Amino acid sequence: MNIAIVGSGYVGLVTGACLARLGNKVICVDNNQKKILGLRKGIVPIYEPGLKELIKDNVKRKRLFFSSSIKEAVGKSEVIFIAVGTPDSGSGEADLTGIEKVSCDIASNLKGYRLIVEKSTVPVETGDWVKRTISAYAKNKQNFDVASNPEFLREGSAISDFLQPDRIVIGVESDKARDILLKLYKPLNAPIVVTNIKSAELIKHASNAFLATKISFINAVSRICDTVGADIKEVERGMGLDKRIGKDFLNAGLGYGGSCFPKDLDAFVSIADKLGYDFRLLKEVKRINEHQKEVVIAKIKDSLWIIKGKTIGILGLAFKPNTDDIRNAPALDLIKSLQNEGAYIKAFDPKSLKKSKALLKSIKLCKDPYEAVSGCDCLLIATDWDEFKKLDLMKIKKLLNRPFLVDCRNIYDPKKMLKLGFNYVGIGRRAV
Ligand code: NAD
Fold first, then answer.
1. Structure confidence at residue 10 (pLDDT)
2. Which of 4, 93, 142, 266 has its CA 20 to 30 A from that of 20?
3. Is pTM, for the whole model, over 0.90?
């Protein structure tokens, strides 16, 4: 099929490259001309494992193209995915100006049947608005369908998530739209859930909100573990082996972050409010998540006493491993709080140093973990990158001013850390 993807970010590029790999001819569009010029030269603006190679291969096979012209993309493509950002507007509501702009741009270039697919995460009823907007701005009466096909990929494993999904959700209102999307996704051989557009939109918000709830739930349980001396890792395992619960997203830590969960949760609460339902459960999920950073600061104070004037080393800035994405990363909130208390911060992250440099002006970014640790009064593990699990802990101990380590991702064994001579503090677990 001939396909256009409007918005060439984490979702747009992965979707474009993967659909090209399935044999389609794909044009990825973006209004950021610099990004498009770079992509044409093989410069991939984000780090996602395997993406650079996949893009290169499909460009070579003449299945993947980049353009800043929606006109060109709409002219050449039967299916047009909208994958622009839907950030928080500031009030919790999703900012849908990008979706509206793209809908208008598509409308003014429509000639002949097109299927317009929402890939971005949007509040329920956005599909209706997209339809109305396209009808209002199309020059003549046009033949088109709108569909919803929310994306569930995770940064860090986006390509395999896209190519081997647990399920694909397609929300449609015509047989034609359904058949096109079923044909497009047939090669993936994945379970496909066909719904109406509103249900598909809701499935995405409800899924993210549910996962965030799981994270806040286990973080709340970790508070009890801290109090009584139980081990949250044992509790997680004991709960997670129950198939009805499942072990994924049952890891106590710094709380959720990133470009999706915080804003999607807010947007879900906000649309629920608008529709007359006070989603208090999700408001509490958010409160627990925010409190989790304060829990860590309190743990630091418990050992350091005074934070002012202390040097704190932070390993991990990205909101999760295997990505360079620092949008809403919990590490950034921690840094802000520690700086407000007067700490001096040194930090290292395997992939996000470039992005962090632009955002974090007043911290020392280091070229390797050992440099970040050297001369620190406290070391914080903020992201569970695999390489942090393999550090030379004796070397770390020697480099620290005092062997105090706060493991915000529970990657080390408290007993082993105690044996090595660390003052080790985890989340919901400690060495005894
Ligand atoms: P992103 O910020 O990485 O990419 C969005 C891209 O859209 C940018 O390159 C931007 O320049 C471009 N853009 C904005 N307005 C445009 C316009 N009018 N015309 C053309 N291009 C335009 O965002 P993302 O992380 O890829 O997320 C996109 C959507 O997918 C969001 O709704 C997000 O919630 C959802 N989503 C994201 C993930 C994820 O892990 N990042 C996963 C599932 C769903």
1. 95
2. 142
3. yes
